[in-house]
Amino acid sequence: MATAMAACAGFGLKAAYLGCVGNDHNGRLVLSEIGRHGVDTSHVLTRDCASRFAVITVDDSSGERIVLWGRDEALNIRRDEIDRGLLESARVVHVDDEDQEGAIAAALIARQAGVPVTSDIDRITGRTRDLIAAVSTPIFAQHVLPAITGESDVERALRALRRSHPGDLCVTLGSSGAAMLAGEEFLHEQPPAVTAVDTTGAGDVFRAAFIYAMLSGYPALEKLRFANAAAALSCMRAGAMAGVPSRAEVERFLTRA
Fold first, then answer.
1. Under 8 Å between Cβ of 201 and 241
2. What's phi and psi for 207, nearest 5 deg?
3. pLDDT tens digits, one per residue of 201-224
4. CA–CA gap between residue 230 and residue 234 (Å, rounded)
5. Cβ(63)–Cβ(174) under 8 Å?
6. Range of the domain at 86
7. Which three-class secondary structure state does DSSP give residue 218?
8. At residue 185, what are phi and psi to the nearest 5 degrees?
């Protein structure tokens, strides 16, 4: 989420982060970094615990990575700690599935105020279907769709979800780009060819770029094209937030792609 918000700010959006960090060096580092990228951190809560951390190994030949992470449940946010005014005043609310109860609560508050909600859905729990139902535009990691629909084919999986969800449905497909069910139209967009250095954070950058394109009124296929290009650019640099491109960089990249 920190990377996604930093990317939103990099694309020129006014971004704020609502969540919790620990009162340790990692927590202070996260706040410093996203603040340096232009993200409003005034709504962040500090817990008396360790911040979420990850050890990431990157394959030098492909840029693919393995993430080993830990997260204290004390970092979950209670419904009564959620700033309703912040959510209700937003143009878009973006949630992930690290703290599913908090994400569902935030999504429902925003939806009740008529604010669209996007999501990063990367894992399967007993509350995943409730999270999908709570958001207006779920964006799935590739491995989630077969697990919740029983369909290995991307289009069939999205159409299976359509039976219970009326909104746009999007899935990231790694080196194969991304696909989307917009209404009843299935769209698949391949990404620009790049030499990947580090894929860490590419999915977060994709989601931020998708949000930017959505707020800018891009047609469905152009949303995928812009988000794919942003994610591809981020893979050409090492690091998550360090790999976040600017909107101008993405636009220049698209003119050459």
1. yes
2. -65, -40
3. 899 999 999 999 999 999 999 999
4. 6
5. no
6. 2-256
7. coil
8. -95, 120
CATH number of the domain that 85 lies in?
3.40.1190.20
Whether 257 shows a pLDDT value over 70: the answer reads no
The secondary structure of 137-196 as a DSSP string is EEEE-TTHHHHHHS--SHHHHHHHHHTT--S-EEEE-GGG-EEEEETTEEEEEPPPP---
User: Hey, what are 120's tokens?
Assistant: 């990063």
Report pLDDT digits (tens) over 222-238: 999 999 999 999 999 88
Tokens 């202070």: give the residue: 28
pLDDT of amino acid 63? 63
**Burial of 166 per CB tally in 10 Å (0-12, 13-18, 19+):** exposed
Whether residue 138 contacts residue 121, with contact meaning beta carbons closer than 8 Å, is answered with yes
Instruction: Convert the pLDDT of each residue in 189-204 to its tens digit.
Output: 999 888 888 888 899 9
Q: Span 138-157, mean pLDDT?
A: 96
User: For 62, which DSSP code?
Assistant: T
Q: What pLDDT was estimated at residue 126?
A: 94
Quickly list DSSP for 52-105.
PEEEEEE-TTT--EEEEEE--GGG---GGGS-HHHHHT-S-EEEESSSHHHHHH
Provide the token pair at 243. 């790999």
- Split into its structural domains, the chain has a count of 1
d(CA 180, CA 139): 9
Within a 10 A sphere around the Cβ of 49, how many other Cβ atoms? 17
